[in-house]
Write a structure and sequence with these properties.
- The chain has four helices and no strands.
- The chain is mainly α.
- Helix 1 packs across helix 2 and helix 2 packs across helix 4.
- The radius of gyration is 14 Å and the shape is flat.
């Protein structure tokens, strides 16, 4: 996968945590520490103390957003920018 340069920005410790979690989520579904917007949104949903999660809770959509993202990222048709299709990861339970 081609690496892209990220702008030189200052991030909060919370944002660093979100990006790291997003990379973990991406790796779970693609085998690579890929971070896409869907991975960031999923990580934000998990960050219960964050403002984004608070907004989702207030709107009453947290569980549905998490469920739908998981469905999409676990589907046979989930593609990364490399256009590779990754099968659903095995259940780790």
């Amino acid at each position: 996968m081609k690496e892209r340069k990220v702008l030189n920005v200052t991030t909060s410790p919370r944002m660093e945590k979100i990006l790291n979690r997003a990379a973990e989520i991406g790796k779970l579904h693609t085998g690579e520490p890929f971070v896409g917007t869907e991975n960031v949104l999923r990580a934000l949903v998990e960050d219960e103390g964050g403002i984004a999660a608070q907004v989702l809770r207030e709107l009453g959509v947290t569980a549905r957003v998490a469920q739908r993202l998981d469905e999409i990222m676990s589907s046979e048709n989930y593609r990364t920018p490399s256009r590779r299709v990754f099968p659903t990861p095995p259940d780790e339970s």
